[in-house]
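R.M. (postdoc): so does anyone remember the format we settled on? I'll just put the structure tokens first.
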């Protein structure tokens, strides 16, 4: 069935979020980190974007709610900012550390530990904090290291905050990488893009979603040519676009939704789609 949609934002659109424990509290965004908040499901709203001065900020800049505490929202320029909903205040430039020479494009807070935060950026830099942004460690180097490509998403293992997946844009490299121990002195970034007929195509990967019941081995990625899926932790991938009834088009975001058990895809110009996960 086709749903009825309302446009609650403006401009080119951007990130959005809904407080899962108080769903009338929602956020939307327009260009350059202009964030808007409603407390009454868009009966009214107010602009709450941070004053970031001379920071570098992406045209469509990321923000995310803390999955453990929806009172907290994180937003990225070339620094990380934290908004506290209850006090309507921003903590700026967390750790006084620039996390990229470009702009932050991905932010993730570990399920079960609000102190653990990861950021990824347009210059391939990935940083980690274990104290809610008070101090930071750069972790994209290693043996092997991550490629110099824009980081598009970060997925943290729900049962191990030291084990993360990174997706990247561009071409000429792998597009899904895993580090099973981000605390290691020499990190190892495994390329989990597969190869040949059972690998991912050499196109940008824009988002990764873990399966709700098999998050350790079953993952879905949104690419510029549709959705691909793996059931063996990235060893092999299969096209999940046309075989599953999705238009053969660019997919910008994927979310596995607890409660509904559905995988939702946001496409570039072909609407929103969802499928029931088995």
């Amino acid at each position: 069935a086709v749903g009825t949609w309302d446009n609650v934002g403006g401009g080119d659109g951007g990130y959005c979020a809904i407080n899962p424990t108080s769903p009338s509290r929602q956020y939307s965004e327009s260009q350059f980190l202009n964030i808007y908040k409603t407390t009454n499901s868009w009966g009214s709203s107010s602009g709450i974007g941070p004053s970031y001065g001379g920071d570098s900020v992406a045209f469509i800049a990321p923000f995310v709610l803390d999955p453990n505490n929806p009172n907290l929202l994180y937003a990225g320029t070339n620094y990380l900012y934290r908004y506290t909903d209850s006090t309507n205040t921003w903590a700026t430039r967390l750790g006084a550390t620039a996390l990229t020479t470009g702009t932050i494009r991905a932010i993730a807070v570990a399920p079960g530990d609000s102190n653990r935060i990861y950021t990824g950026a347009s210059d391939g830099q990935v940083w980690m904090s274990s104290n809610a942004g008070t101090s930071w460690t750069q972790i994209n180097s290693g043996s092997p290291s991550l490629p110099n490509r824009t980081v598009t998403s970060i997925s943290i293992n729900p049962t191990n905050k030291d084990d993360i997946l990174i997706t990247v844009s561009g071409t000429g490299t792998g597009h899904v990488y895993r580090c099973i121990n981000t605390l290691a002195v020499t990190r190892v970034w495994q390329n989990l893009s597969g190869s040949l007929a059972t690998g991912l195509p050499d196109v940008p990967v824009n988002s990764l979603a873990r399966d709700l019941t098999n998050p350790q081995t079953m993952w879905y990625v949104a690419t510029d040519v549709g959705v691909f899926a793996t059931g063996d932790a990235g060893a092999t991938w299969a096209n999940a676009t046309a075989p599953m009834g999705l238009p053969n088009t660019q997919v910008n975001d994927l979310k596995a939704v607890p409660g509904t058990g559905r995988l939702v895809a946001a496409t570039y110009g072909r609407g929103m789609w969802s499928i029931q996960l088995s």
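R.M.: ...and that's the designed sequence above, right after the tokens. Also worth knowing: The chain has no helices and 23 strands. The chain has a mean pLDDT of 96.
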